[in-house]
Amino acid sequence: MPIQLVTTVAGLKAESDRLLTAKQGVSQGLVPTMGALHEGHATLARTAVEQNDVVVASIFVNPLQFGDAVDLDRYPRTLDADLALLEEQGVDLAFAPSVEEVYPGGEPLVRITSGRLGDKWEGASRPGHFDGALTVVAKLLHYGMPAAGLPAGSAGSGGSLPAYRAYFGQKDAQQLALVRRMVADLDFPVEIVGVPTVRAEDGLALSSRNRFLSEAERDAALVLSRALRLLEERAKAHEPLGLDSALAMVESQPLVELDYFDVVDPGTLEPLAENCRETPFRGEGLALIAAKVGPVRLIDNVPLSS
Prior knowledge:
The protein is globular. A six-stranded parallel sheet has the order 1-4-3-2-5-6, sandwiched between helices. A three-stranded antiparallel sheet has the order 7-8-9, with helices on one face. The protein is built from ten helices and nine strands. The protein has helices at residues 9-23, 39-51, 69-74, 79-89, 99-102, 122-125, 129-143, 173-185, 215-236, 243-251, and strands at residues 4-6, 27-33, 54-59, 93-95, 163-169, 191-195, 256-264, 284-293, 296-305.
């Protein structure tokens, strides 16, 4: 079935409700994106399609997430290619609103605040980024929410509210943690599903920004995933992580300007201490890294378990 494109909130709600009724669906999935889609987004979409009767993917470049107007203007817009990729995965609806549709009357006076969890790591390097991201995610979660009171049989016994899930990539680990915290703290009726990072054959985490890397810069960027993989192997072997040696590996690459590299608690994002460095690794952790490679800021991470 060809994908349907809608550009208004009213159109999204009408079409998603119609599809749930027509399919006698009991679940709806939402895949929020900013477009410029790649295989990582395709994996998100496929996962959503496998787990839900109706799937909506949003395509919206959120201006609140960009501290630099040049970076906002530079962000690639590839709507036709994005729609083709989503259709190949079986997505039912693409929601591609204008800025005016999402923020009628201009930037919102009230926003979601990311709090202490959003002040560190990416939040420290990009002030206000997560407030903007959470604000638009909150709006998208409301837009994509299945309506109550659909005809009996179309959304479960007695027309009850369908199951509702939203899909985010593990590559943006801090964003995923913040969305989960927001949903828990503010009682959003949605399940947040994290999908593992998709990588190119050489190990580089897929990102819409990778297209801006030169050949030499891309080769240099591989040190990020190599350093993370080293920590992952040490954790699995119950060895000390030796973060300093992994850090030296990254810093030896002259084209890479490191921002941060640390091992944190997956839930709180607080740094883990001695466990990471001089004693055998036990338990769970998350290795986070961010760096500029040429003009491009890249982030990556890997879950650690012993």
